[in-house]
Each structure stands twice: as structure tokens, then as C-alpha cells.
Amino acid sequence: MATILIIDDDDAFREGLAETVADLGHTPLEAGSGEAALERLRERCAPDCIFLDFRLPGADGLDVLEALRGVEGMERVPVVMLTAHATSDNTIGAMRLGAFEHLTKPVGRDEIAALLERMLATHSDAPAAAAPAFADEAPSREPQLLGISEAMRDVQKRLGRAARTHSTVLITGETGTGKEVAAHVLHRSSARAGGPFVAVNCAAIPADLLESELFGHGKGAFTGAHAERRGRFEEAHGGTLFLDEVGDMPLAMQAKLLRVLQERQVTPLGTNRPVAVDVRVVAATHRDLPSMVAAGTFRQDLLYRLDVIPLHLPPLRERVADILPLAEHFLSMLAPSADAARKRLSADAQRLLVTFAWPGNVRELANAMERASALAPAALLTRDDFAFLFDTATKTSGDGDAIPVGLAELPLNDALAQLERALIARALALSDGNRAEAARRLGISRQSLYTRLANLGMSDA
């Protein structure tokens, strides 16, 4: 049984709502104005949730809601705003101040019952045991390569060893795994930390402009070259040059890059003036470069030059131990201040997150936490607040010929295994971990599901 505070100056509506609340087994408290409601709260009344009308005598509903949030102990109490005439302004205003829901009068009994069930479950749901959110990490706004899984510990160790050298590093991994973050951390940990960090996305620059971008050009080198311009290699002198998506570099440019790596000097386009550069090159790609070498689309000699120290970032699905700590970390980063209360993950939300396939890896997880945190009505994030993850997955696979992100780059057996893993994880998440129900959704026997879980290393899912 919960205590429900109803704030409305319409006596008939307020009394009717109080009667409905009482019939549902709860204790209603009534107030005909914002001032009366605040007086009740000062008397140490502690409601479990509040129904608040927009139009009130004196201070209006939005002013009262703002005042309520300033009362000790009321910061997280869910508030439902009520109005006879919904407008975009009052709806947006209510949600901006943290209202749980916004309803238009009249409100039916079934709607009240369902809403109370949602609010009270969210308000009273104690959070599951908090996942370690990298408590030992020093707070930093700099890019951090966070992880407690064995796979990430190996990456961190290798990165630390690479930081002691000036050797070229090749970072591989799926889209969204944090390759640029790793490059930033490598630079910051190296003896070149005092020098510049210059990043170039080789896939984002047209092929006919990439040479000028990297090596610079002289005045009049081509139409529109009205002045001499330094290239990115020169800009990175004494520091680190990060070549992202190097697998997308045209073959002709690959030959020129190889020459620069060998001779450690660049010749700006349209000049005969070689310029010596002291640069550590860190390259990254989500592509399978050895396969590209075999297909004749990537130079083998360049691969040798780039792959002096290889650093592979594992996909998020292979570092399950990092999912919840990363989610908690992103939530803490989203809090408006260090002292502000941040949103938390319910037990069912945590189960969903660790069983989701995360085809977009850490980037997708960060975006999901930001979206859920921004749009969820309550301080406790539930599995319903992450329903969009499956909507996105459905849309991705809804186009008959569409291939989910990352699968097209994998060998067939690896792609099939990844898809099977994703479908099983989705079925388990939708059935809240019930394996019999998950097997039914997948159209296979429970024993077949157990076998597949074991083969995929998902027995603990």
C-alpha cells in the first residue's frame, strides 16, 4: 500500500481520483493548492507518488513541481502532471522538470491502476548490487580505455608496452570498439605526450585530396591552391599521427604512404622540397587487411610497415564483464554535476544490457545510456527504457537485403555465429532470462538451445 498525494483545485475530480486510489488499495492525501501541498510536506508527509494539476490557484503546476523538487526527500518521488488541455509547452515544461508522466483529463480507472503500478515498481525497486564503475580510476575528461575484463586487461598491458617505444602501431577492431580512444591513450602515455596528436580519417577525405591533406601542397600546386599549406604529417611533427580507416586508403596513396614511412620525410604536392618529419604513426581499421592483401586491394609491404605493434580491440560481446561498469560510467558522466543524483539501472535493465549483442560496441552502449537517461521518466532505468535497442535491431534487419553492421566484413562462419549469438541474446532478453520461453521464441527445443549456448560460450547468459 502506498501514499498518494493528489493536488488539484477541482474538488469533484480530486475526490473522484482519491476514491479510485483508495479502491486500488492505496492511501490518498488531498490538497487543493500548491501551497496546501507544500504545507503537508513540511509536516513530514512522505508520499510515494504525486498527481499534480497544471492549473492551480496561486502558483501553477509547473511552479509547484519545481518547488516540490526543492523539498528534501522529494527529489525522486514520481510526479504525474494532469491537465484538461494539453499543449506542447506544458508537456515539454513538465518533462523538463522531471515529471514521470503527463495525462489529459479525464483519466480512467484502468489507466490510473497501470500508471500506479509502473510508478510504484520503479520508485520502490531497489537497485541491484552496483556494478563496479571503475571506482579506482582517477576522474578524467580525457579519453580513457576502460575495462576490467581479461580481454581489456591484455589490451591495456600491450598498449603500455607500446607506449615505451616509438614504433608504428596498427589498431584493429570492429566499428565502435574505441580505436581512436586507444590511439589517444597511447599518445598520452608515451614520451610524445607533449607533442601534437593529429587525427585523419582516410575514409572521409576524397581520394584526390588525401595526398594534399597528408603531405601538404605548395602555392599553385592545383586549382584553388592560393597559398602554401602544411600537411598533417608536418602538423604532427614531434607527436603522433593517427590514420583512421587506413584500410580505405586508395592503392596509389598506399604507395606514397609507404615511402614516407620508410624515408621519414614528406614532399608537399607541387614542390620538390622534401621535409623531414619526426612522427609516430598509429593506424586503425575495422577491415581485415590480410584478406585485402590476398584480394590485391591493400599493399602487403605497407601492412608490414604498419603492423609493427598490433593492437586488437575486442568487441563488447566478448568482454561482457565490462558492460555494466561501462554503463554505470556513462551514467555518471551524464550527471549534471558531481553532487547531482544520477540515474540508476534496475536489475531487469542490467540483465538486458549484458545479454544484448551490441553490434555497435562501446559507442552504441554510450549512445544507449545517453538516450535512456534523457528520455526515461524516473531515476531508475528499467528494461522498458531500453526497448529502442530491439526496435533498432528490427529496423536494421527489416530491409530484405540489408546486412547488419559489421557482418558483411566477416568470414561466413564468423558472421553466422555472430548472428546466432545476437538472436539468442535477444530471445533471452525478451523472455527475461527464461530459457524455455527463449527456446519457444527461437522455434527450437530447449535442449537445442542449451547446446547452442554451450557452443557459443554463452552458458552463463
Automatic annotation (TrEMBL):
<protein>
    <submittedName>
        <fullName>Two component sigma54 specific transcriptional regulator Fis family protein</fullName>
    </submittedName>
</protein>
<keyword id="KW-0597">Phosphoprotein</keyword>
<dbReference type="InterPro" id="IPR025944">
    <property type="entry name" value="Sigma_54_int_dom_CS"/>
</dbReference>
<keyword id="KW-0067">ATP-binding</keyword>
<keyword id="KW-0805">Transcription regulation</keyword>
<dbReference type="InterPro" id="IPR027417">
    <property type="entry name" value="P-loop_NTPase"/>
</dbReference>
<dbReference type="Pfam" id="PF00158">
    <property type="entry name" value="Sigma54_activat"/>
</dbReference>
<dbReference type="InterPro" id="IPR011006">
    <property type="entry name" value="CheY-like_superfamily"/>
</dbReference>
<dbReference type="Pfam" id="PF25601">
    <property type="entry name" value="AAA_lid_14"/>
</dbReference>
<keyword id="KW-0804">Transcription</keyword>
<dbReference type="InterPro" id="IPR025943">
    <property type="entry name" value="Sigma_54_int_dom_ATP-bd_2"/>
</dbReference>
<dbReference type="InterPro" id="IPR001789">
    <property type="entry name" value="Sig_transdc_resp-reg_receiver"/>
</dbReference>
<dbReference type="Pfam" id="PF02954">
    <property type="entry name" value="HTH_8"/>
</dbReference>
<feature type="domain" description="Sigma-54 factor interaction">
    <location>
        <begin position="145"/>
        <end position="374"/>
    </location>
</feature>
<dbReference type="InterPro" id="IPR002197">
    <property type="entry name" value="HTH_Fis"/>
</dbReference>
<dbReference type="GO" id="GO:0000160">
    <property type="term" value="P:phosphorelay signal transduction system"/>
</dbReference>
<dbReference type="InterPro" id="IPR009057">
    <property type="entry name" value="Homeodomain-like_sf"/>
</dbReference>
<dbReference type="GO" id="GO:0043565">
    <property type="term" value="F:sequence-specific DNA binding"/>
</dbReference>
<dbReference type="GO" id="GO:0005524">
    <property type="term" value="F:ATP binding"/>
</dbReference>
<dbReference type="InterPro" id="IPR058031">
    <property type="entry name" value="AAA_lid_NorR"/>
</dbReference>
<feature type="modified residue" description="4-aspartylphosphate">
    <location>
        <position position="53"/>
    </location>
</feature>
<dbReference type="GO" id="GO:0006355">
    <property type="term" value="P:regulation of DNA-templated transcription"/>
</dbReference>
<feature type="domain" description="Response regulatory">
    <location>
        <begin position="3"/>
        <end position="120"/>
    </location>
</feature>
<dbReference type="Pfam" id="PF00072">
    <property type="entry name" value="Response_reg"/>
</dbReference>
<dbReference type="InterPro" id="IPR003593">
    <property type="entry name" value="AAA+_ATPase"/>
</dbReference>
<keyword id="KW-0547">Nucleotide-binding</keyword>
<keyword id="KW-0238">DNA-binding</keyword>
<keyword id="KW-0614">Plasmid</keyword>
<dbReference type="InterPro" id="IPR002078">
    <property type="entry name" value="Sigma_54_int"/>
</dbReference>
